[in-house]
Amino acid sequence: MTGRWDIGGTEVGSGEMPGSLDVTAIPPPDPDAVTQLLGEVEKGQAGAWNRIYALLYRDLHQIARSQIRQQRRGHVRSPTSLISETWLKLASADFSVENRAHLVALVARAMRFVLLDEVRRTLAEKRGEGMDLLPLDETTEPGQSSRLEQLLILDQALNDLAKLDARLAQVVEMRYFGGLSELEIAGVLKVTERTVRRDWRKARAFLFSHLGEGELPDPV
């Protein structure tokens, strides 16, 4: 199922976003409702993406909050701003989406790339390369640089894993960064839950060999 993002009924790239939502007031999304709306997107029905955004906002907020927490960046970026930037970055993309789990996995991956770009800018500035960066919070932890470097090492390990077995890397992205269940991951990858569990064990072993036992940051 292919869709082109139409945010708020405006032209793609206009920079407008649906307003931020009260996460506590949003009920858990109905996967079937999201899938139905994706069908409406394919038919070109206006406003379908806005309704999907509202349905998924609780999930997106949880993923954004967790990924920001992994960086320990204080109050430099809020989950709402990360969601907004990610949603807009995906706005001009043509892509295939099958269901809620698949869409959440795509957004989680895009969020990771947005934050990795920030990590690289932060470390570049710290190394005196003169790159512009949002100011760090005054309460930045002393060990933040090593923490940010660890995230880049994790990213490199994932890239190395993807070269060996792309599906193992996808499982890590969906489970670790996207918080998807084994059942949801199996649905996206069209494999069994048993295969997902086996892939997760293999992927963890690979990452631990690169990062060291106990060095994998907490997942979503």
Which characteristics define this entry?
220 residues, mainly alpha, two-stranded antiparallel ribbon, 8 helices, 2 strands, 3% strand
Brief sketch in words of this structure:
The protein has 220 residues and is mostly helical.
Number of helices: 8
Percent helix: 55-70%
Largest sheet: 2 strands, antiparallel
Q: How many strands appear in the DSSP assignment?
A: 2
Mean pLDDT rating: 75
Identify the strand order in the major beta sheet.
Answer: 1-2
What overall form do the CA principal axes indicate?
Answer: globular
Indicate the proportion of strand residues.
under 5%
Oligomer: single chain
Amino- and carboxy-terminal Cα gap: 27 Å
Give the H and E element order: EHHHEHHHHH
Poorly predicted runs of 5 or more residues = 1-16, 23-27, 130-143
Structural class: mainly alpha
- Rounded radius of gyration (Å): 18 Å
Protein described:
Helix 1 (31-42) packs across helix 2 (48-71) and helix 2 (48-71) packs across helix 4 (100-126). The protein has helices at 31-42, 48-71, 79-90, 100-126, 144-164, 166-177, 182-189, 193-211; strands spanning 2-4, 94-96. The protein has 8 helices and 2 strands; from the N terminus they run βαααβααααα. The longest helix is centred in the middle third of the chain and has 27 residues, at 100-126. The protein is globular and about 50 Å long.
Write the layout of secondary structure elements.
Blueprint: E1 2-4, H1 31-42, H2 48-71, H3 79-90, E2 94-96, H4 100-126, H5 144-164, H6 166-177, H7 182-189, H8 193-211
Antiparallel strand pairs: 1-2
Helix pairs in contact: 1-2, 2-3, 2-4, 3-4, 4-5, 5-6, 5-8, 6-8, 7-8
